[in-house]
Amino acid sequence: MIDSTLLRQRLAGTALGLACLLMAPAIAAADEISVKDSRGQEILVQRPVKSVAIFPLPIPEAMIAIDGGTERLVAINPRAKSALMNGVIGQLFPEIADIRTDLVAPNFIPNVEEILTANPDIVVQWQRKGDERVAPMENGGIKVATVSTESRETRRGYVSMLGQILGKEDRAQSFLDWEDRTVEEISDVLEGADRPKPRIAFIDAMNGNEFVVFGREEAYFQVSGLANVATEAGFTEGSVKVGAESLLTWNPDIVFVNYYNDAIKPADIFEHPVLAGLDAVKNGRVYKTPAIDPATAAGGELAYLWFAKIGYPDLFEADMRTQVADGFKLLYGKDLTATQIDQLMQMDWNGDSAGYAKAFAASN
C-alpha cells in the first residue's frame, strides 16, 4: 500500500511538472521583447542578450554604465576605442583594449562579413546615412537598432532602449531621472539671470584657416544657456566647414574645442595668426571640453554643468570636481584619483584659459 501522504506528494509533483511544461512557451515569449529604435521601428530582442556591437562613438560609454561593465560589449568603432583607451574610461576598464574594432570602419561603414562571423545578438548603429550604414546589415539578416543624438529626446531614447535590451530598465531610468534633475537645476538658475546668452563656437577640427564647427543648436548648448553662432548664421547640420573669416564675422564670446580631437588644443586657437581679433581669444575664453561626452544621457549631465559653469561662472558655484567624482561613482562604480579628475577636466590643456584653474583645479 502506498502511503497517502506520499501519493499526494507524487501527485503534486506531477501537477507541478505539467504546469511547468505548460508555462514554458509563455516564459519563452516573455523573454522576447520589442524595443523601438530612433527610426520608430520595432526590433524584437530575445533576452538575455549576450553580445552587443556598438558602432556610434559616444554610445559604448552609456552601455558600460548601464550594464556595469564591458562583458557583453563585443565590438566598437576603432575611433571610440582610441578615445576610451586614451582617457579615464580606459583606465577604469582596461579590458576595453580587447574589444574588437574590425566590424566597422572609422566612418561607420559596417563590415557585414565580419559581423556575420561574429554574430552579435544586436548591432547598434547611427540612423543617419542608413542606406550606407544600416541597410547592408539588415539585408544580410543582421539585427540592427538605430540611434540618434540630434536632440535631447533621441539621446534619452537610446538610453532607455539600451536599458531594455540589457534588461537593466531601472538603472537606465535612474540616469534619465538624474538628467531631469540636472536640467531643472540649471534652468532654475538661468531663469533668474537677466542677461543675454553667451555666444559660442564649437570647433571639431581645423586645418590652417579651415575649420569644422558644430552647426546646429545642440541640446547641451540649449540646456546650458548658450547660443551657437553657427546656428545664428543659418546652419543646421551637425558639422560644417567654414573659414577663419566666418569665425571673425561671427565673433563668439567663447570657443570650445572638442575633446574627441587630440590634434587640436586651445593654444592652437590662441596662437592662430588670423583669429587674434576674436573676443573669445582676447578674453582668454577658449576651452578644451571635458572628456565626458555630452551626447550621452548617461553622464552627459556632468557636461551640462561644465558648459553652464563656463558660460556663467558667477552663477554656478558647484564644485565640479566633487560632481565628477560622485557622478563616476554612480555611473561606473569606480573611485577617481585627483589625477584622473584633472585628466577629465583637461587641466593641462586649459591652463591658460580664463578662470579655468581657479574654477576646476584641486584646492590645496
Notes on the structure:
It is a single chain. Helices cover 46% and strands 15% of the residues. With 364 residues, it is α/β, with parallel strands linked by helices. It folds into two domains: 140 residues, Nitrogenase molybdenum iron protein domain (Rossmann fold), CATH 3.40.50.1980; 167 residues, Rossmann fold. The longest helix has 28 residues.
Keywords:
single chain, 364 residues, alpha/beta, Rossmann fold, 6-stranded mixed sheet, 4-stranded parallel sheet, disordered N terminus, ABC transporter substrate-binding protein, ABC_transptr_periplasmic_BD, ABC_Transporter_SBP, signal
Tell me briefly what this model is.
It comes from Hoeflea ulvae. The protein is an alpha/beta fold.
Unreliable stretches (pLDDT < 50, length at least 5) are 1-30
State the fourth-level CATH superfamily of the largest domain. Answer: Nitrogenase molybdenum iron protein domain
Distance between the termini: 86 Å
The CATH architecture of the largest domain would be 3-Layer(aba) Sandwich
Percent range for helical residues?
40-55%
What is the number of helical segments per DSSP (H or I, 4+ residues)?
A: 18
Strand content: 5-15%
Derived from helix and strand composition plus strand pairing, the structural class reads alpha/beta
Largest sheet report: 6 strands, mixed
